[in-house]
Specification:
The structure holds 2 protein chains of 2 kinds.
Chain A (H helix, E strand, L loop, with lengths): L4 E3 L2 E4 L5 E6 L6 E7 L6 E7 L2 E5 L6 E5 L5 E5 L8 E8 L12 E2 L3 E5 L1
Parallel strand pairs in A: 2-11
Antiparallel strand pairs in A: 1-3, 3-8, 4-5, 4-9, 5-6, 7-8, 9-10, 9-11
Chain B lengths: L2 E4 L4 E4 L4 E3 L1 E4 L5 E7 L5 E7 L5 E4 L2 E4 L9 E3 L8 E8 L7 E2 L3 E6 L1
Parallel strand pairs in B: 2-12
Antiparallel strand pairs in B: 1-4, 3-9, 5-6, 5-10, 7-8, 8-9, 10-11, 10-12
Classes of the chains: A mainly beta, B mainly beta.
Amino acid sequence: DAGVTQSPTHLIKTRGQHVTLRCSPISGHKSVSWYQQVLGQGPQFIFQYYEKEERGRGNFPDRFSARQFPNYSSELNVNALLLGDSALYLCASSLGAGGRAGANVLTFGAGSRLTVL
Amino acid sequence: GDSVTQMEGPVTLSEEAFLTINCTYTATGYPSLFWYVQYPGEGLQLLLKATKADDKGSNKGFEATYRKETTSFHLEKGSVQVSDSAVYFCALRHLGAQKLVFGQGTRLTINP
């Protein structure tokens, strides 16, 4: 069975440009979350979507946006790129959203590595 | 706010050595605790978890016990292998929430 798939795997942009990252969750998973992992640091939560609705947002500027489609895939968009946006962007999926302790464990994709020059 | 602190890396050990990676957390209530592992060029994989105090999570020879009194979740393995070389992340999540709060990660290198 396919895991969480992300595209593209690597990309290079210049400051001020816009980027769209894509994520396909595991079949049957209805929740998608996005995390930013800067080199040498732990992942930071950006967004969570469940059933096409935003269920959580981390401390990121409005340049970051996302959406979830009827097939539960998701896009992360970043406008007006800054050098500091260079990072590995991780997508994770789960069956549901939150729930009882320990339930709905996240499964992560391999990530999209964004370099901003 | 919530936070997770891991021991500074990198950690370098010889094969068959005993491993401990320390993790402490600051959070309200009683979150669930997790260890994730990231191999080179890959995403995060769940290694083990514990959902309440005194629970022990275990997988692939790794263990960690949820210690409420010391707010800790240290990762241990009795005999490491070269294939255990990776970056290890400790994380917490509150009941009813989806957001994971990660530590900064600890890079582990095992030499043959």
